[in-house]
Amino acid sequence: MTSRIYCIAEFEPKLGHEQELFEKLTSLEPLALREDGCVRYRVTRQIKHPQAMQESKFSIMFNEEWASIEAFEEHCAQPYLVDFFERYVGNPETSITADCSVRLFSDEV
């Protein structure tokens, strides 16, 4: 086992803002990938498929892998990420996100 941290960050775009939100999230990828401890940081979109059990309101998702909890915490404190969440998630006047969910996982037993 490792001490790696796996993060699933899911976003529900406001109506009419899916492409804008996807582009803003995609612009974060190269910044995160340059951070120490970032193993994987990939934004993805939900697709429909007969084997998919259900569709989620969270149509955009980051799949992240960090070398440690400390690396993840440093990532969360980065000014570009704080600015993104303040501007596009938390501010009712400029938000393009209807809802979001951030969950952390570990492979430790």
- CATH T-level topology: Alpha-Beta Plaits
- Can you give the helix content as a percent range? 25-40%
The total count of helices amounts to 4
The biggest beta sheet is recorded as: 4 strands, antiparallel
Low-confidence segments, ≥5 residues, pLDDT <50? Answer: none
Q: Within the largest sheet, what's the order of strands?
A: 2-3-1-4
Spell the H/E element sequence: EHHEEHHE
Average pLDDT, rounded to a whole number, is: 91
In what range is the share of β-strand residues?
25-35%
Straight-line distance between termini: 8 Å
Concise summary:
With 109 residues, the chain is an alpha+beta fold.
If you had to describe this structure to a student in words, what would you say it looks like?
This protein is of the alpha+beta class and 109 residues long. The chain has one domain (5-104): Alpha-Beta Plaits (2-Layer Sandwich), CATH 3.30.70. The chain has four helices and four strands, in the order βααββααβ. It has helices spanning 18-26, 29-33, 69-76, 79-90; strands at 5-13, 38-45, 60-66, 97-106. The longest helix has 12 residues, at 79-90. The mean pLDDT is 91.
Blueprint of the fold:
Layout: E1 5-13, H1 18-26, H2 29-33, E2 38-45, E3 60-66, H3 69-76, H4 79-90, E4 97-106
Antiparallel strand pairs: 1-3, 1-4, 2-3
